[in-house]
């Protein structure tokens, strides 16, 4: 597989990032300390390069009706300027990807799939467009995505926005988006970029995701770092992004979600809009699955000791295997190990005592309600 690099790769090298392969992309794993980056996002702010994510534009008179057919949610009901979390499944109800869709205008949406699935999702959407008056355009190769996450995120973004547009930022609700002017510098000198700003994220904190053409990504990155210098903003890599999303109980495709898993086992039943009119891909299979109690359910596990369960570690009850960990790590914020795991339905109730086999040594864990961490409003 050919290595892929984001438009910010040289910026990360200058900042001393350690890199890792993620879906074929060379992405910053951390810059200095993943623990420091984690705490910065919880207490101040972190700056992430998410340019490996996909961006698929869906436009045309049938855009809403088409996405109602192509995805599990009712995208036609989303108001302009708002976003919706949804799933794209196959005919068998298996999860191809989880994604966010933004309604930018009456006949215009931006669908954002995960990095490793972006080409597959773009191809699936194009294949499903037959018979609809829509245009499906994969803009991933031309688009960068930068995220500012943390309690100081709003103040940092406001520092780049003209006073006349400040209310666009301060009044923006969670899962909403709008275009704003952002002042950036660079070799071309001070200039303004009109960009899509979304109040979304994958950390459990307040924050924004900003979509920017590749050619302007470095200028935006530098402007945000400068604007946040006195607010505790630091660049943050994928390592802390994973520990942050785990504390927030957010699933990761390939760990908690896959083609072999359906939305109901993953606790994503509300994302499947069986009440919407008309057919959608996977509807019949998902209707049948809803009537069947899943053999296993996704749960949160809180460790009583210091050692963390990791992906694929067995979950036990009285020595018998009753599940498997999908993600796990020590929680820097909470101070104890946390994990996501699929366990037999009989053991999925919060308060149930189980063990995780940590390389031959069973350690006590308790099933708890998700998320593990929830920020103060």
Automatic annotation (TrEMBL):
This is Aminomethyltransferase. It catalyses: N(6)-[(R)-S(8)-aminomethyldihydrolipoyl]-L-lysyl-[protein] + (6S)-5,6,7,8-tetrahydrofolate = N(6)-[(R)-dihydrolipoyl]-L-lysyl-[protein] + (6R)-5,10-methylene-5,6,7,8-tetrahydrofolate + NH4(+). InterPro entries: GcvT, GcvT/YgfZ/DmdA, GcvT/YgfZ_C, GcvT_bac, GcvT_C, GCVT_N, TrmE/GcvT-like. The glycine cleavage system catalyzes the degradation of glycine. SUPFAM superfamilies: Aminomethyltransferase beta-barrel domain (SSF101790), Folate-binding domain (SSF103025). GO terms for molecular function: aminomethyltransferase activity; transaminase activity. The glycine cleavage system is composed of four proteins: P, T, L and H. It is an enzyme of class 2 (transferase). The keyword Lipoprotein does not apply. Belongs to the GcvT family. GO terms for biological process: glycine decarboxylation via glycine cleavage system. Residues 8-276 form the GCVT N-terminal domain. NCBIfam families: gcvT (TIGR00528), PRK00389.1 (NF001567). One of its GO terms (cellular component) is cytosol. Substrate binds at residue 209.
């Amino acid at each position: 597989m050919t290595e892929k690099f984001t438009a910010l790769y040289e910026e990360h090298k200058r900042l001393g990032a350690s890199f890792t392969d993620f879906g074929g992309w060379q992405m910053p794993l951390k810059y200095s300390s993943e623990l420091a980056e984690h705490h910065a996002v919880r207490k101040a702010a972190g700056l992430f390069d998410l340019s490996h994510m996909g961006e698929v534009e869906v436009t045309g008179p049938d855009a809403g009706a088409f996405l109602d057919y192509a995805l599990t949610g009712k995208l036609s009901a989303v108001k302009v300027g708002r976003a919706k979390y949804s799933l794209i499944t196959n005919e068998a109800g298996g999860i191809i990807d989880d994604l966010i869709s933004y309604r930018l205008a009456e006949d215009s949406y931006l669908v954002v799939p995960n990095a490793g699935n972006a080409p597959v999702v773009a191809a699936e959407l194009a294949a499903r467009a037959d018979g609809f008056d829509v245009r499906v355009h994969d803009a991933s190769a031309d688009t960068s995505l930068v995220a500012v996450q943390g309690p100081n995120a709003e103040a940092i973004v406001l520092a780049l926005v003209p006073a006349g547009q400040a209310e666009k930022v301060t009044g923006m609700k969670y899962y909403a988006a709008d275009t704003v002017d952002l002042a950036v510098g660079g070799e071309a000198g001070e200039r303004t970029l009109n960009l899509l700003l979304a109040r979304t994220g994958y950390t459990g904190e307040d924050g924004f995701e900003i979509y920017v053409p590749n050619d302007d990504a470095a200028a935006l990155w530098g402007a945000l770092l400068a604007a946040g210098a006195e607010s505790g903003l630091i660049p943050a890599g994928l390592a802390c992004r994973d520990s942050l999303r785990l504390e927030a109980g957010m699933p990761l495709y390939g760990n908690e979600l896959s083609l072999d898993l359906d939305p109901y086992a993953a606790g994503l039943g509300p994302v499947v809009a069986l009440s919407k009119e008309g057919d959608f891909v996977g509807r019949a299979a998902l209707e049948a699955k809803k009537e069947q109690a899943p053999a296993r359910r996704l749960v949160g596990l809180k460790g009583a000791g210091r050692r963390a369960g990791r992906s694929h570690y067995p979950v036990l009850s009285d020595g018998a295997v009753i599940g498997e960990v999908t993600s796990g790590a020590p929680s820097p914020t909470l101070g104890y190990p946390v994990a996501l795991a699929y366990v037999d339905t009989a053991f999925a109730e919060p308060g149930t005592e189980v063990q995780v086999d940590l390389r031959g040594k069973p350690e006590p864990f308790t099933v708890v309600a998700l998320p593990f961490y929830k920020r103060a409003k």
